[in-house]
Amino acid sequence: MLRNPIHLRLEKQEAWQHVVFMASLCERMYPNYQMFCLQTGFGDPAIYRRILDLVWETQVVKDAKVNFDLQLEKLEECIPAADDYDFYGVYPAIDACVALSELLHSRLSGETLEHVITVSETSIRTVAMLEMTEAEREMTEEELNALPSIEQEWDIQWEIFRLLADCERRDIELIKGLRADLREAGISNIGINLQQ
To answer: If DSSP codes are grouped into helix, strand and coil, which group holds residue 190?
Structure first.
């Protein structure tokens, strides 16, 4: 698995920062799931969107109440099985669901650190798998880290990390701004953009 110093640095952040970081990466994986649903007619991107919106809401609305158990159940029904599809697009869709599922599990358990690292790794894995699929071969960690797409993914993760690290306390406006920016960009971690 691709390692990065960001994983050590995340240990020093607070739970709310982890949640916003995870939500940000899910936001960047959402178009991959959306695209898969449109291509196959499986699942419902609106369910993913709604669950992710509820998580964001808990970060900006005081006392927002969400039944995360129920959301997890809804999400689990929307996860495609890799064996049912013989094309690459199923994998980024599964990764997007895995990331959101980790985020929901962190809300249920109250533990965020292991989940935030898993979400970070999941997002980078999506990018690495695309590269290896296109190259039609396995690559070493060194080879992968030398690729511009991997470098770009780490850069974006660091950018989100730094933005949150600079906050003394939970900054509602910053969180709203981050969500709006990611949504407006509408580009996934592997360059899928359905907004055009």
So the answer is: coil
Query: How far apart, in whole angstroms, are the C-alpha atoms of residue 45 and residue 159?
Result: 27
SS3 of residue 187 by DSSP: strand
Q: Which residue has the higher pLDDT, 168 or 171?
A: 171
Number of C-beta neighbours around residue 172 at 10 A: 12
Sign of CA dihedral 125, 129, 130, 132: positive
Q: Where are the alpha helices (DSSP H) in the chain?
A: 6-10, 15-40, 45-60, 68-76, 90-109, 113-135, 141-145, 148-165, 172-185
Distances (CA, A) of 36 to 20, 84, 87, 141: 25, 13, 10, 27
Model pLDDT for residues 111-151, shown as the tens digit of each residue: 999 999 999 999 999 999 999 999 999 999 999 999 999 99
Could you read off the pLDDT of 4-13 as tens digits, one per residue? 999 999 999 9
* Identity at 98, one-letter amino acid code: V
Q: pLDDT tens, 35-49?
A: 999 999 999 999 999
Return the sign of the alpha-carbon dihedral for residues 156, 19, 163, 56.
Answer: positive
pTM of the model: 0.97
Cα angle, residue 161 at apex, residues 92 and 94 outer, rounded to 5°: 15
Cβ atoms 164, 21 nearer than 8 A: yes
Task: Kindly state the tokens that stand for 65.
Answer: 């109440």
